[in-house]
Design goal:
The protein has 199 residues and is of the alpha/beta class. It is built from 4 helices and 11 strands, in the order E-E-E-E-H-E-E-E-E-E-E-H-E-H-H. It has a single domain, classed as Lysozyme-like (3-Layer(aba) Sandwich). The protein has a 7-stranded mixed beta sheet with strand order 1-2-6-5-10-4-11.
C-alpha cells in the first residue's frame, strides 16, 4: 500500500480554491494518496463523462475510523462480526471525502475503480467504465458536513477541468432500486448552492 501523507487522510484542502490534479499522472496533489489494488484499465476510447456520488460508513453509522481504508485496500479483519461479510469484497472508489472535508485518493482517475456495480446512466450500462466514483463519509441518518460539500465542489471543478465530465449522479440514480446512497441526508440543494457560489 502506497501512502502520501497521513494514513487517515487528515491533510485537509480547506485553504485551496481548487485542488489541482496532475494532467500527466491522474493523481490529485491535495489528496492523501493510498493505493487500492482494486482497479483495472478502462475500455479503450471510453470517455470519462460521469461523476458518481456514494456514501459509506464502516461499521454502519460509525465515522472517523480506518475501516473504509482497510476495505478499499483489502485489509478488513474478517474476525470482526460487524465487518466479516465485507472482508472478501474487492471494491474501491477513486476518492473518499471524510467528515472533516479531508480527501483521500485510492485510484488514478484514468483507471477504472470498482464502485458502481450493476448500473446504467442515460441508457449506457457499466458505469464504472466511464465514471469517477466519490465516496462521502456518511449514512442515511446523519447530515453531511459543510466541509464535505466544499471539498466535493472543489473536486468536481478540478475533475471537470481534466476530464470530459458532463453529469453528476448519485449511486441511487445509476443503480435504481438496488442502492439508496448518498441518501436523504445528502443535501443536493446545498451542493448546487455551493457550486453557484464558486462560479
Amino acid at each position: 500500500m502506497t501512502t502520501n501523507g497521513n494514513h487517515h487522510g487528515r491533510e485537509s484542502p480547506q485553504n485551496a480554491k481548487t485542488l489541482h490534479t496532475s494532467h500527466s499522472t491522474g493523481w490529485l496533489s491535495a489528496a492523501c494518496r493510498i493505493d487500492s489494488p482494486n482497479f483495472d484499465a478502462r475500455p479503450r476510447d471510453s470517455a470519462i463523462s460521469l461523476l458518481v456520488l456514494h456514501h459509506i460508513s464502516l461499521p454502519a453509522g460509525h465515522f472517523e475510523g480506518d475501516a473504509v481504508i482497510r476495505l478499499f485496500t483489502n485489509q478488513l479483519d474478517d474476525s470482526d462480526p460487524e465487518l466479516s461479510e465485507l472482508a472478501a469484497l474487492r471494491v474501491s472508489a477513486h476518492f473518499f471525502i471524510r467528515r472533516d472535508g479531508s480527501l483521500i485518493q485510492f485510484v488514478n482517475v484514468f483507471d477504472r475503480a470498482w464502485h458502481a456495480g450493476v448500473s446504467s446512466w442515460r441508457g449506457r450500462e457499466r458505469c464504472n467504465d466511464f465514471s469517477v466514483g466519490v465516496e462521502i463519509e456518511g449514512d442515511c441518518e446523519h447530515p453531511f458536513a459543510r466541509g464535505q460539500y466544499e471539498t466535493l465542489n472543489r473536486l468536481s471543478a478540478d475533475l471537470a477541468s481534466l476530464l470530459p465530465i458532463k453529469d453528476t449522479a448519485t449511486h441511487a440514480e445509476i443503480a435504481f432500486g438496488r442502492k439508496v446512497d448518498p441518501g436523504p441526508r445528502f443535501d443536493l440543494a446545498l451542493l448546487n448552492a455551493a457550486r453557484n457560489a464558486q462560479s
